[in-house]
Amino acid sequence: MSLIIVAIAILVLILLISWAKVNAFLAFLIVCLLAGVALQLPSQTIISSIEKGMGDMLGSLVIIIALGAMLGKQVAASGAAQQIAQTLVQAFGKKYIAWALTLTGFVVGIPLFYGVGFVLMVPLIFSVTFRYQLPAVATGLPLLAALSVTHGFLPPHPSPSALVALFHANMGITLLYGLIIAIPTVIIAGPLFSNTLKKINSTPLKAFQIELIPTEKLPGVFVSFFVPLIPVILIGLSTLIQTFTTNSQWLYQFAAFVGNPSVALLIALITATFLLTGSDRESMTIIMNRYGDAVKDVVMILLIIGGAGALKEILTQSGVSDQIAHALEGTSIHPLILGWLIAALIRVCVGSSTVAGLTTAGILLPYINANGVNSNLMVLSIGAGSLFFSHVNDPGFWMFKEYFNVSIKNTFKSWSVMETIVSVLGLVGVLLIQLFV
What we know:
Elements: H1 2-18, H2 24-38, H3 43-59, H4 62-77, H5 80-92, H6 97-109, H7 114-132, H8 136-153, H9 158-167, H10 171-194, H11 221-243, H12 250-258, H13 261-275, H14 284-318, H15 320-328, H16 335-350, H17 353-371, H18 375-385, H19 395-404, H20 408-434
């Protein structure tokens, strides 16, 4: 009976978000209360579980997500992202512009949240396509594929970071595996797939073009590339050093400290604050106000993540989590594939990759712990599943359609297929790495 209640709770969550259009955070709270009552938890236990679940989930993530938002905002506002795009397009030349934009999306996508990256980079795509008279969809989609992959696979983005916290995975190893999977995935879903889309007619609306920052006011090339990559460099080096040193050595302790995602992001943000200020040398007040605005942009993401943590705690306190683990033990489906399937199903129903990933994690957490599955790969498997087949219930679908001014049919042929390729290749990559670790 308990498992039926959980299934109904997940269905109610999906309906509240997709059909009733209820805010995802409120939907999580409503479902937590209803599930707690249906599972016969004492009223005080329901409330305390919601509070504990949100606190446990957000405790390790607020710093990471807030600092990441600030860093991304500064990279965007300073013109560093524009400098990266401009430099790569000039280096690759007109013939390989799609590859240049792919690399741009990958570098810029590491610090920028997906929504911010989309809104910032699409006008830059249009400026390139208008200048060289290129098909907008075929030229721009590779960059968006790179943004999608970094959003779904790589910490310190919100969903992968939250999944790392839930599964007690290693942030550095997850990032390393994510990069190994991300590179071939971006190449196939980006430049290679986009070659089939050159006949799609697209006339981007001029309203979405932006006034670019004059070249002489942009940050330097080295600084523009280096600052967004600081967190990746520090976390990656930390993981490498810790692999070849022992816990008692000072180098191990130092690497663990600077490679902590919160510390790495803080170092990157401090660097960005003083180096990415443009030629006009913005005042500290302006920069700090920008950081305040950046945090406002991610408040709802934090609340949704907290809501998912609350639902996970309700399931744990009721004992249903253990029942789910036992029920799944007899399944012949590999846990990594199962995680991908459930996340993909919820993604198709709800539209939100964050909701899909975190809901799946709450369902499978005890099963994964009991079966000794590689937690780093499970983070990536669920992350890949949460990107599956973006369609009409996903805001990203409509942003792409409206910005590029294409038909719904062509949005499915380009955007939806690209997201599906990213998702499937992500799972393939996870399964291949699983063979060697």
